[in-house]
From TrEMBL:
One Pfam family named in its UniProt record: ECH_1
Protein name listed in UniProt: Enoyl-CoA hydratase/isomerase family protein
Origin species: Actinomycetospora lemnae
PANTHER family registered for this protein in UniProt: ENOYL-COA HYDRATASE, ENOYL-COA HYDRATASE ECHA15 (ENOYL HYDRASE) (UNSATURATED ACYL-COA HYDRATASE) (CROTONASE)-RELATED
Xref: InterPro entries: ClpP/crotonase-like_dom_sf (IPR029045), Enoyl-CoA_hyd/isom_CS (IPR018376), Enoyl-CoA_hydra/iso (IPR001753), Enoyl-CoA_hydra_C (IPR014748)
Coiled-coil ranges (or none): none
Top-level taxon of the source organism: Bacteria
Family: Belongs to the enoyl-CoA hydratase/isomerase family.
């Protein structure tokens, strides 16, 4: 694909080889449907291959970074083996394409980041969040295992005790708390987030490209070494998409009530 082929990501080429990527579905708080999920998985290969790009900055249009998976998409996937198999392959591509992209990636987390959004937000090489942004992995509240990116990065960023707490409870963490825990590089007032991300991108884009890219590649060996753990978590998430709890999870969300998961029934 070329950048012209994307429909839910928009691009702005800036000075010094900085590419600003905007998740552009603001009417849905940039929630990922099948099309957007696929674009977020593929775009990093195109960024890596583009000779005019040195650094990518990714942010969300409107008030959110990305509010997770579109609920209608979740309903379509649940219990559908072919869709589950496709999603397993695509979520793996998203994680490994971000890790494998030689160009530095800066995330400007301007609002809520959940699901595929928080994958990109936290796997970025430099993450800058709004102090009042909310980040989280809410898989367990939906009735599925925490897959996506959580097992590969949360223990490394936040430590095992905090990773266990947030991933087992599904609670959200604010941008300010994420900075305190070491999950993001900086937390700033919302209106300063994108400007700071672009400033950092310019620093990276005007530095020694070989030195910066090889440093990124070396640091990401920590993530590559956790690859088997991620692969297992992704498979477990898709396994639970074939069970009854996820049906209750998305039904409860639709009905705006607390879930009554079959696996927790007396």
């Amino acid at each position: 694909m070329s950048l012209d082929d994307y429909r839910q990501l928009t691009f702005e080429r800036r000075d010094n080889g900085v590419l600003l990527i905007t998740i552009d579905r603001p009417d849905k708080y940039n929630a990922a449907d099948e099309e957007l999920h696929g674009e977020l998985a593929r775009v990093w290969r195109d960024v890596d291959a583009d000779p005019d790009v040195r650094v990518a900055v990714i942010t969300g249009a409107g008030k959110a970074f990305s509010a997770g998976g579109d609920l209608a998409m979740v309903e379509r996937i649940a219990g559908d083996y072919d869709r589950v198999q496709h999603m397993l392959r695509e979520m793996s591509e998203m994680v490994y394409n971000v890790i494998g992209c030689d160009k530095p990636i800066v995330s400007a987390i301007n609002g809520v980041a959940v699901g595929a959004g928080v994958v990109v937000a936290l796997l970025a090489d430099v993450a800058i969040a709004a102090e009042d942004a909310k980040l989280g992995d809410g898989h367990v509240k939906l009735g599925v295992a925490a897959g996506d990116h959580a097992a590969i990065i949360w223990p490394l960023l936040a430590g095992m005790a905090k990773a266990r707490y947030y991933l087992l409870t599904g609670e959200m963490v604010t941008g300010a708390e994420a900075e305190r825990l070491g999950m993001v590089a900086k937390a700033l007032p919302r209106d300063q987030v994108l400007d700071e991300a672009l400033r950092v991108a310019d620093v990276l884009a005007t530095g020694s490209q070989q030195a910066i890219r090889l440093t990124k590649r070396t640091l990401n060996n920590w993530l590559r070494s956790a690859g088997p753990t991620f692969d297992q978590s992704a498979a477990y998430e898709m396994l639970t998409f074939m069970g009854p709890d996820v049906v209750e999870g998305y039904t409860a969300l639709r009905e705006k009530r607390a879930p009554r998961f079959p696996s927790a029934a007396d």
